[in-house]
Hints:
Shape: globular
Largest sheet: none
Strand content: under 5%
Number of helices: 7
Order of helices and strands: HHHHHHH
Structural class: mainly alpha
Distance between the termini: 17 Å
Helix content: 55-70%
Amino acid sequence: xxxxxxxxxxxxxxxxxxxxxxxxxxxxxxxxxxxxxxxxxxxxxxxxxxxxxxxxxxxxxxxxxxxxxxxxxxxxxxxxxxxxxxxxxxxxxxxxxxxxxxxxxxxxxxxxxxxxxxxxxxxxxx
Length: 126
């Protein structure tokens, strides 16, 4: 199911390009920003309740290595780096995702503002 989800977000949102274009204020990062952001993203996709829950998920051998890389961030590092990222670049990504979902007719056109509530227990739930 995870492989199918990853193919979908890559096809529709050009996900790898979006991740690789992210940056933060660290001088010489040992763990790429894309790996840290992917860890935080999959925290929500996998519906883990906290960074520590995601940390235990990342410590499993060969778990999400294709997505995050061989060097996986700790829960503290994820939180620290997310705090160093410029929020405007994340807003731009969200705007692009919002626009693409509007084009795919996932959202109704009803004005200048969109509010989205996500609920469900499976991938692709709205």
